Amino acid sequence: MIEKNEKQGNLSLIDTDTLIFILRNNKNAIERSKEYQQKFGSLNISDLTYYECLRGYQCTKAIKKLEVFLKLVDKINTIPLNRNIYNKASEIYAELRIKGFPSGEIDILIAATALENDMTLVTNNTKHYIKIREYFDLRIDNWID
Fold first, then answer.
1. Which of 5, 7, 15, 126 counts the highest number of beta carbons within 10 A?
2. Residue 144: C-alpha distances to residues 21, 60, 65, 83, 85 (Å)
3. Which of 116, 114, 104 is nearest to 52 (CA)?
4. CATH no. for residue 136?
5. Residues with Cβ < 8 Å from 126, sequence gap 6 or more?
6. Residue 45 lies in a domain
7. What percent of the chain has pLDDT over 90?
8. Could you give the CA distance from residue 112 to residue 97 in angstroms, rounded to a whole number?
9. Which pLDDT score is estimated for 103?
10. 4 pLDDT band (50/70/90 cuts)?
C-alpha cells in the first residue's frame, strides 16, 4: 500500500488516457500534474497503464514517443498489481456483471488499484468508471476539463 501524509490529502492514480494527455503536453494535464507533483512528489500509475502505453507505442512503432514515455515513467511511481487488488477487482467484476453492467478488465483492475490504495482515479474517461464509482465509491478527478 502507498504511504500518504494525512495532511496532504488524497493521493491520485493517473489513468492511461491522462498520462497520454501529459505526454502530448496538454496544457491542463501538465498544469495539474505539476501542482500534484509539488504537493506529493511523484505521479502514480498502475502497472497496467505502463503496459497499455508501452504496447501502444510499440505496436505503432512510435519510437520517439516511446523514448519520451520511458523517460517520463522513470520519474513516476508505478504500482504493481497484488492479491488485494485482484480480490477487489473480482468483487467489482462480479457486482457489475450481476447488475448487468459489464466493464473492461483493464479498467476494473485500474479502479481496483485506486480503491485498494485509497487513491483518487484521475481520468478523462469517466464513462468507463461511472458504475464502479456508483457501487464502490471510487473517487474520480478529471485534469483535462
1. 15
2. 8, 25, 20, 32, 27
3. 104
4. 3.40.50.1010
5. 140, 142
6. yes
7. 86
8. 15
9. 81
10. very low
Residue 46 exposure: Cα atoms within 13 Å on the Cβ side: 30
Q: Give a yes or no: residue 42 inside a domain.
A: yes
CA distance 145 to 132: 21
**Domain range enclosing 91:** 12-141
Q: How confident is the model at residue 89 (pLDDT cuts 50, 70, 90)?
A: very high
Query: What is the tens place of the pLDDT at every residue in 102-140?
Result: 788 999 999 999 999 999 999 999 999 999 999 999 999
Q: Tell me which amino acid residue 16 is.
A: T
Q: Count how many residues are written for the chain.
A: 145
Q: Does residue 22 lie within any of the structural domains? A: yes
Domain count, the chain: 1
